[in-house]
Amino acid sequence: MHILVLNGPNLNMLGIREPEHYGTQTLADLIAMIEDEAQRLGITVECYQSNHEGDLVDKIQAAYGKADGILINPAAYTHTSVALLDAVKAVQIPTVEVHISDPDTRDEFRKISYIRQACIATVKGKGFAGYLEGLRILADYAKK
Ligand code: DQA
Which tens digit of pLDDT belongs to each residue from 87-111? Predict the structure, then answer.
């Protein structure tokens, strides 16, 4: 089983960026945690981060026929991107939306998630641990 893990804009700044929302650990720390959990679950992962919407669309399209699941933190594109929603709908790969913070309890504009309607689950407000929960959700879903 193979999972594509996508992180959107500004998540390369984890550790520096708004630690009150995102903590002090880095993207490299997050990827190490995800790879450990993947090994424990006996699955493979590819982790990719981009600040560019089209790159994320390209990555989702390229997963067609290759990945069994997508775990995505679209970051700010959560609240703006119909293109990411359409990409997930196009490939029909089971997808879990993850957020480090809980966007639903922050600014009004963060309450909208376009991608959510194409996702099998959303994990939010659980810090980096939310990614591990998302991986487990996808692993369980693929077994059904
Ligand atoms: C985020 C929440 C978004 O509102 C924000 O734009 C991000 C990160 C999170 O992980 O909590 O960049 O997706």
Answer: 999 999 999 999 999 999 999 999 9
pTM of the model: 0.97
The protein residue whose alpha carbon is closest to atom 6 in ligand 1 is: 76
Q: In degrees rounded to 5, what are phi and psi of residue 24?
A: -115, 0
What b/e sequence results for 66-81 when a residue is b if at least 16 CB atoms lie within 10 Å of its CB, and e otherwise? ebbbbbbbbbbbbbeb
- 33 close to ligand 1 (CB < 6 Angstrom): no
For the chain, domain boundaries: 2-73+90-103+126-143
CATH number for the segment(s) 2-73+90-103+126-143? 3.40.50.9100
**Best CA proximity match to 48, nearest among 63, 36, 68:** 63
